[in-house]
Amino acid sequence: MSEVRVRFAPSPTGPLHIGGVRTALYNYLFARQHGGKMILRIEDTDSQRFVPGAEDYINEALAWLGIEIDEGVREGGPYGPYKQSERRDIYREHTRMLLDAGKAYIAFDTPAELEAARAATPNFQYDASTRMSMRNSLSLPADEVKRLLDEGAQYVVRFRIEPGRNVEVNDLIRGKVVIKSDILDDKVLYKSADDLPTYHLANIVDDHLMKVSHVIRGEEWLPSAPLHVLLYEAFGWADTMPAFVHLPLLLKPDGKGKLSKRDGDRLGFPVFPLEWHDPKSGDISSGYRESGYLPHAVVNFLALLGWNPGDDTEIMSMDELIQKFSLDHCSKAGAKFAFEKGKWFNHTYLQAMDDAELAMLFKPVLEANGVNTANFSDEYITRAVSLVKGRINFVKDLWDQARFFFTAPDSYAEKDVKKRWKPETPAQLTELAALLESLDDFAGAGTEPAVLAWIADKGYHLGNVMNAFRLTVVGECKGPHMFDITALLGRDETLARLRAGIERITPAE
Ligand code: GLU
């Protein structure tokens, strides 16, 4: 294979959707695997849909996920500029080339005229069968065309598509896709109104000039592929046509159809990599980063939506993904966006993380919940984290699981009180307090056997005593092993909570 050069070519029309992130990822994996280049091209020729901040958002999201760019607006490179709005001369020149070769023509039809044509002919399409009845450089006399241009009339340039051709698109996932040129319309390639090309022209001119070897993009672009093939031919570039790869759609987690932002809102998961603040409406859409996902968990999750390594391996580092990735194992069928699986990936990556590192991530969460972390050593926070981390999917879940290590309960779960707080409980726990006070090594391994021996000796109900004890210390009947909790809290704190509980808890009638 000659040099692999791929491009991710987003349009800055809003936040990058998670499907776009997967496209970028697959391009990146493919490029790295083949020692090729990853290009980031900003396709901003649709001035109507341009959204400020979207380009920065794309850069930030890719950087967060560890998807590195070799050539791009910020990185530079031999085939720049990499932003289409800065390549107007190039597109003007290429539009001219097609006009001169008779492969394109100038059309003057106004929006009202197009509207009238659509109203008059059902399923109207601007193509070989209708173009001679419209106002363009093929149907009008040459002097009339010249007059209109001299007058500064607005026009578009359309691609002249001839019917009767079978257009072949060779897609490395889907195989050969053949479509008849008759169904294509004479697509607009350039608009004089803003002196900008449309997506179709700019996209393929740039793929050619940037020496793109593989066009890897979402399935929604498959319908434009035949047109792109014809454009490559019209320019005389057929022998350097890139290979096409149209990735399977991301589908709703439940039911049929394409994943949409509404599914995320409805089922409670982000569809954007980073939080997005819409500059117009002020609306905020949640992001994976802000929701507490680790970037690599997101990468790993997305990598497996449409591809598999050929076996059951699920947890793979970026390097492993680069090594194993293969278009042969990409599926044609859409991939259900199983967001619960995304949580599982995050859970798994958090478990593999060093406790001390996790503790550092937990600190801001503690502070946000009103805990002054200066009062706790890093070692203390780390031990608390190690005791509860098995139960978390996100760093923020640590608060729910470990809060009692940082603040004494201010209330006691009613249903647990009802179940475990018996008339004899206060007297029993008062005895327990005395026992705990008398132990030589409170945090040592001897505490548990001593307490259990005392319960057995007195013939108390083990479950009731231990759960009532837990209730005073934790505030509810949950959490890790009781004696791990008390060892970390220490004798003074444990006794203070035990005594406060005895005083404050009164069972409901
Ligand atoms: N600018 C298009 C987009 O927004 C690019 C599609 C393609 O990769 O050709 O996705």
Architecture overview:
This protein is α/β, with parallel strands linked by helices and 509 residues long. Helices cover 43% and strands 11% of the residues. The chain has 20 helices and 15 strands. It has helices at residues 18-33, 54-65, 88-100, 111-120, 142-151, 199-209, 225-235, 261-267, 295-303, 318-324, 339-352, 355-368, 378-388, 397-402, 414-420, 425-438, 447-458, 462-474, 482-489, 491-504; strands at 5-8, 37-40, 71-72, 104-107, 156-159, 166-171, 175-180, 188-191, 196-197, 214-218, 243-247, 250-251, 276-277, 284-285, 335-336. Strands 4-5-8-9 form a four-stranded antiparallel sheet. α9 (295-303) packs across α11. The radius of gyration is 33 Å and the shape is elongated. The mean pLDDT is 96. The chain binds glutamic acid (GLU). Glutamic acid (GLU) binds at residues 9-11, 43, 199, 203, 217, 221. The site of glutamic acid has 8 residues, from α6.
